[in-house]
Amino acid sequence: MLILLSLQGAQYIEMASGTETQVSKDSQLYKDYDHLFLKTFSTDSIILMVEGNDVGTRAIMKAADLLEQQVLIVPGVTTVSSPASIIKQINYAESGRLKIPDSDREIREMMERYPEYFKNLVIDKTHALIIIQIEGDSTNQQQEDMINNIELALEGAEFPPGYKLTLTGKPSLMLDIQSEMGTSMGTLLGIAGILMVVVLLLVFRNVRWGLLPLPVVLLGVLFTFGVMGYLGVPMTMVSMAAFPVLIGIGIDYSIQFHNRMEEEIRAGKTSSQALVSTVKNTAPAVLIALVMTALGFISLFTSVVPMIQDFGKLLLIGVIMCYISSLFFGLITLYSFDWISRKNPYGLFMKKLKKSKADDSEDHGLESDSKNSEYSGYGSISVTGEREPGIIEKILRKITGLTLKYSTLVLIFALFTCCAGLYVDQSIPIQTDTNSFIPQDMPSLINYKNMQNILSGSGDHLNVILRVKDTSDPELLRWIDEFCRHEVENRGHVHSASSIVDLVKERNSGIIPETSEEIQAIYDEIPASQKQQYIEGGQLLHIDLDIGNAMADLEVAGIKELRDIILQDIQWLQPPPGVSVTVTGNSVVIIDMLAGLTTGRSQMTLLGVFLVFVGLLVVYRNIVKALSPIIPMLVVIGWSGLVMEGLGIAYNPMTAVMGALILGVGSEYAILMMERYFEEKNAGMSPVEAIFQASSTTGTALIASGATTVFGFAALIFSPFPMISNFGLVTVIDVLLALVVTFVIFPPLIVLMDSQGGKKPGILEKIGVFMKNLRAKYSVT
């Protein structure tokens, strides 16, 4: 039923990539950008680049004119600008015929007489552009439909042979990126699955059915998809990275259950007894680890970036679903396999054979009770009372012994390196050039960059929105003209500025009219397709500031500073009374999103640490048990900063959340180790004996789950997308560090804290004893 419900719910998942994934809908930034600019003035451009021997021929113009007519009827297309339309307008003005001239010579003469009309469309003799403007607030699906229709129109436009036609622009680039990302992610997850199978066969071979944890966790991921659909959690660029994380965490749950049940069976218990014992001892420990992991992920909800909040929701849902899958489906499947193996004829034959051998030789030391007799039917599992430790267990015991021997040195080293890493982390740069997140050799990106190089005004922009009382006020237009000129002349990163004033001056001999009536008359003459990006109704005006490649050159701090300087210029130049000014645009949204992702990472990590600590304190009501898993994770977070600085990796939207992920993933290892330590200690072992036993038993399962996670994420390193590749590399390193800390730092730490906690009372206990003695001394009775 759960599988069927999950398959149904998964169909409701929606892909989100708009402004609402970057900034909150309740924020003023979203309202300014989405309502004032995006839905009012914004248009996106799909660019057709025509390359050949001579783009100024009648054949090219006829094909461009035919393409323009077909594209204009595509839903969502607002305007089309091409050399052919300009040629037709010039021909109409000179001869009264609105058509393409009959000879190449006439076309060349027109282009030579009016070069300023063609400056943005005909780059040189061999390169021309056709610019197709589409609605700026169109969805991804609408953009994809438009591009498909444009490609169909392009096939019927009959461009001459030998000419190269390249469709590019931001909408085309983004759709290609999404397609490439989906293809790449599918391939990488397939590689990750193969690597997980290999590592399970290598590391988890001390149990039967060692591959079972993989389908168990995949079932948990399927449950996650279903819950996402029913709860309306969207899929974003960041949340796509959550599934490798879930596989890494969820497979650990399954491995822990699987390992403990096999351990109980080796001890001679029946299938039912082993199942009950596993649920009784391991399920609460894993549940506590899950709760602490979830508390670490809850800190992601404090992010100001909606897609990070959705990332946290997905992780929270995912770990719960993976636990449910491991507890019920994983254990019941393992129980069923064990029950079947005991009842199959081959198992019965092996049981009788081994029982006969046990009767013939007392030196074998085999136990003859009914439990071990039942267990002996496995064939591949030893039935001796004491199993020979494996190579991994021996290594872990040696490591534990060394760390306990040099405990003081180990803990001091961890403290200093952790502090150094936390300090260095503050200086790690932030990657702001979004083009650097995608493969640099991707054809779509190469075409896009080529288009940027040859087409002015195709870089980053800042959009100045004016709320006014009268859009035809001459004083207002003169202020806009002065402001635009001032910004271009005095601000190096402002390459050009365009507004409705440019269109007015073109139609009035280069000057601004003196009266509102004259300005309004010119407004009426300007085609709606030209003025719609600068004026809306009678109260909104738009100034477009082209800032080139400022996102890559200035980074977050520089863009913020540039925006602040422009706001200061507006205050200094003082617009006319009654005019309010807002600076917005995609660049502003991106820098605020990146700033929210990166500057808030320390606060998210600290909040996660606090929540996990409080959660452990509530569960255990013991300061030692609450602090023991937290301290190792702080060490990992510090070490992670050192690693990123050493490898020269900058923070991006995916690596910025690594602090919360380290806390969520790594604390689980420490909690499970601590649970087994106290279980063995409560059974009568000393602290040193208990940590040795915990390290060699639970540690084997942790190595298996950690290795599986590492191998799974290792596939992401080979991604062609630098953002995903860096995320995979950092995750692999952090999981390895979490394992190192669990086996190197945690053993001496828990023994030291537990021993000290047992020797002398803490401050609260001392206060309690003091108050008790005080009451006894001065008691009236």
From TrEMBL:
Localization per Swiss-Prot or TrEMBL: Cell membrane
Key words, A-Z: Cell membrane, Membrane, Transmembrane, Transmembrane helix
Biased composition regions of type Basic and acidic residues, renumbered to the chain: 360-372
Residue span of region Disordered: 360-381
Residue stretches making up the SSD domain: 210-329, 647-752
Gene Ontology CC terms: plasma membrane
PROSITE patterns: SSD
Top-level taxon: Archaea
Topology versus the membrane: Multi-pass membrane protein
Membrane-crossing residue ranges in chain numbering: 185-204, 211-231, 237-255, 285-308, 314-337, 404-424, 604-623, 630-651, 657-678, 699-721, 727-752
Pfam families registered for this protein in UniProt: MMPL (PF03176)
Protein name per its UniProtKB record: Membrane protein related to SecD/SecF
Biological source species: Methanosarcina mazei (strain ATCC BAA-159 / DSM 3647 / Goe1 / Go1 / JCM 11833 / OCM 88)
